[in-house]
User: Fold Putative dual-specificity RNA methyltransferase RlmN from candidate division WS6 bacterium GW2011_GWC1_36_11.
Amino acid sequence: MFKRFLKNNNVQGYRVQQLYDQYFKQVISSWDELTNWPKDLREKLKEEVPFTELVNFTEFPSSDHKTIKVLTNTKEGFPVESVLMRNKDRITVCISCMSGCPVGCKFCATGRMGLNKSLSTHEIMDQIMYFQRKLKATGEKITNIVYMGMGEPLLNLKHVSESINLLTDSNVMAMSARRITVSTSGYIPQLEEFLKKDMGVNLAISLHAPNQKLREKLMPTVAKLNPLDKLY
Assistant:
């Protein structure tokens, strides 16, 4: 997320760790709270790196407040949805990897939008950090993350993988890979590439039909190119 700034400004390793600790672990709310950085470096960071790439966060809580849907926008004005769900001892966040989706499943409202854009690593992480900041006020934190929002994760593999690396890195968010699930409609070449990364996360494949004929009717774009017998 911050690699270009850190490299261009020759930020020393211990300063990098201070940034990661404050942003991801202490869950600061603005660059002004990065007080262990020198003021001149902090001001330069404020000028060059937006604290959040997404804007206009609007919450839609359920009546019991156990579920909170958040609608936000990219700077281009494209919509992005994410959801926080409370269930017994879990707090799960469902995040998007795209605004819209190119897969075009017949039953999916997001698919009818088409693809607006694939989200950057920063935009993916913004969804997670929004909820982390919200939960900080009650002394809670996210326990599980699912890539099951808008978009097909395997068609934005670079930024999805980068975000997973940030989540599981012990120097960043230190989340167990087993608490992360990536859901895909089943693009076989990208699935094989993802599996080679051996990231240790859970994988959910959305078949949506017990046979190829029905699957092609419901999910024509992906099903014809990635038949069930090859997925099995």
